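Dear Dr. H.,

I hope your travels went smoothly. While you were away I took the liberty of generating a structure for the chain from your last submission, since the lab meeting agenda had it listed for discussion. I wanted you to have the full record in hand beforehand rather than looking at slides cold. The sequence, exactly as received, is reproduced here:
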Amino acid sequence: MRTKATFTWILLIAAILCQSANSQSRVHLYVSSSAEYIVTDPVGRHTGIDPRYSRPSEQWTWLEQIPNATIGYNTSNEEGPSSIDFEILFNSPEGDGVYTIVLIADRLTISGLVANITSIDNPLQLQHPYFQVDGIPIEKDSAVTYLFTYHGAPGAPVSLVKVVSASSLVRDVAAMLKLNWITTQPIADKYVTLINSYSTQLQQNNYTGARGSLISILQSLTSDSLTNLTADACKSLRRDVEYLIAQLPVTPPSGVNVKLINSSGTNLTGGSLQYYDGSWKDAVNNNDGTFKVNTTLATVSLRMTYEGGSQTKSNVAVGPNVVVFQTVNTQVKLQNSQGALIDTGTVQYYYSSWQALGRTMNGAATKELLPATYTFRMTYATATNDKQQDIGTNPTVVFTTVNAAVQLKNSQGSFIDQGTVQYYFSSWQNLGTTTNGVATKELLPGAYTF
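The corresponding predicted structure, in token form, is as follows:
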């Protein structure tokens, strides 16, 4: 077990193909750090040490998958191993690519990282990068990831970049609080809240909001630098936040094009569209069934209103794709107790207010409506029935009458004539005269007075 947390140096030595396709150059890659770590080569093989989960050192996981690679403790310090060194030889350009370096801590620590390439065969023809990162806070059983990119040809990409995300920033803040780089829990909570706000906005493709959250972090770093944060905390957080800002799209979305079509795909006029940007706002109506939403948001909620009904689409991505609202051909049928279509029924529907749908013709009335749940009202022979239905699931609404039979009997229970029958629902209506002691009429189900 080590007793000092000094820099761990990782040395990767690689033999790299020369710029000519027919020649190779050997290179030496060296990486070092005071934390344990795992190196993954460009083809996915791993070499390193994983000390997590409070296991004794003899139970740590050792990986040795990368050919020509060695890893071990540097024992030059009398007080104990001060670093872990990794070396590998590979050919350039055969071994060029991205090497992932994951620093892992078995305790709260401040680590460092060095990555260095040395050419063995052609020192004047290949690049020889040297990178050093100091002051890396790492929580116990946590990890910090760097990507080391190497291409030997002059001018080709070479870099050592930390993998930064909202979750990695939250872990860094937790480590900094324990290291007293951040003075109090409320200050740490403030930064975690801003980081989580950035993450939420990013998941919603709201790049403007995400950028605003990151800028708020930078502003807080400036105001907190004298009293609430150490210089190391400010340097580390500022570097990572500026990196995240640079990854956000620079050009904001230009808006959304929307159209309203019927069940046959033909544009419908008469609709109105609103979008939510702090409050519901009217979109530009082109009066041909199309609309334009002008917004800098990355995602937006849209609400289309047509013939008294409305439909809302949430988290719509702002971009070149046309957003389509489509009505369904709603059919309201009136049939008798035998299942035969009958006339004439009068149909209304309710979404936010009662609207006329029409009168049945050949037993049906139809109307194009936005998919939603409506209440439909059928009026037949002065009586009414209401039915609630989601026409997005089933656009056919059926009302069925019952064969109401009114009987007239004498004291012996025998049918007699001539009785005249009326019924009352909203007004008195004639039902008919008994024949063989019975008068019948198809009526909508309900409570009547006869």
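Two observations you may find useful: The two ends are 97 Å apart (CA to CA). The CA atoms of residues 111 and 136 lie 5 Å apart.

With kind regards,
E. W.
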